[in-house]
Amino acid sequence: MAQVATRSDEEGAPEGLRRWLIVASGILGTLLFVVAITGAGMVLPHMQGSFSAAPDQIAWVVTAFIVGAAVANVCVGWVSDRIGRRNLYLVSVAGFTAASALCGLADNLFTLVLFRILQGVFGAALSPIGQAIVIDAFGRGRQGFGTSIHSMGATWGSFVGPVLAGYLADLAGWRWVFFAAVPFGLAALALSWFSVPRDEARSERRLDWTGFATLGIAIGALMLMLSRGNRLDWFESTEIIAAGTVAALALYVFLAHTATSARPFVPLALFADRNFAIALLLIFVFGGYNYLPLFVLPLVLTEVAGYSLPLIGVLLGCRTFGVLIGILCIFRIADRADPRLLILVGFVALILPQWLMAQWGTDVTPGNVVWAMVIQGFGSGIPYVGISALALATLPAELRVQGVSLLYLVYNLGVAIGAALLFNLLAQDLQASHELLSQLVSPLNEVFRQSVPKRLLDLNNPDHLASLSAEIGRQSIMLAFNSAFLLTVAVGVAALPLILLARVRRGR
Description:
The protein is an all-alpha fold. It has 22 helices and no strands.
């Protein structure tokens, strides 16, 4: 997400009904973006069946959107200055709405992924511009209040997304999760057109197109390699070698250009600040953690526990209550607390539910899910507050806009790469677990034959064998899920010592 300037004090803030129409416009755009992330994760099981896709293939529906938004995010501020904030918001809402409709019309996985990229590109400006619009509606003197109103709207989007998607997918099919965004997008477009005040474009800012293009190519090639590597046996495949080569070359050109350009896309001075460099690593891990349960649990709970999507949507929506508790807890202390303590508390609250989920069995109950989601929601908002404070604690004022933009880019990359790696790991572990269990639970295994009473399992009965095969499938999914989330716990714990390397000046 890029920083977008707010209007000057001299213009004044709107009052009465118009103010709240402007606020509704900004919040509605942000809601569309949040629901697009959380809602798509909910309907992955339906899309997987519709396209006969494996877990690592269907993950592209999630990662494509995030990568598109991440790459477009970094130039939101520049485009806003060039064409005006209101015009950019209108174009973004219109493009996002059209892309949502196209996603619903997609007849194969390839076109769906392309339209999700388009949806992410247009959606990149919805949250930062929406926040700036809401802040301006209350004026500079009430920026904190405006930010809180906008944040609460975005928070409820994480509740609406899973619940709405679950019910729509169950009643009408996964396509209607995308179609449902169209009327809300049109409403946001109409509200914005008639209520958001016009602003003047400014053309003095320049964009480093070489740096932007090479970074975008490097990210796209890397995501292609990570998403298809496991399926194509990694570097045994020409496609993976080509993607890896393109990513490496593009990254090299980006780094070389950044080191020699007078005004690079990413100023090197940012990395000279130790706190900022540590914050980048922490927010990358945080991004990888934040949405993982929302992406993975719908697939696991439908296949293993037999839960319906509406029920899963309600269970995952309980995460919102944890988010609200976290916001209320840090609201009054955020400016006074040591950011390192906030990061530590937040990361522990994120690691704990991952550990709990790694212990689940096929008899997982709704209570288990709710408990994990509330804790995960509590931890999802706290680390970002601490990481942002740490990143800006010692960063020079002239670098803060670029620093915040890079922080959001790395966060989005963490979300995309974390999802791609986890789905790859699930696919790999699922295959290994299934092979192991099939060898142990087999009519050819004499120990197994002797240990199971024939009245419970007749290996000569086709119906019994079908039931056994289904149970092996369920247990394999659960084992793969446990293994993957246990690894995420290890990654989170390994990141904690980075907090000790940060330095926070007192009295600033």
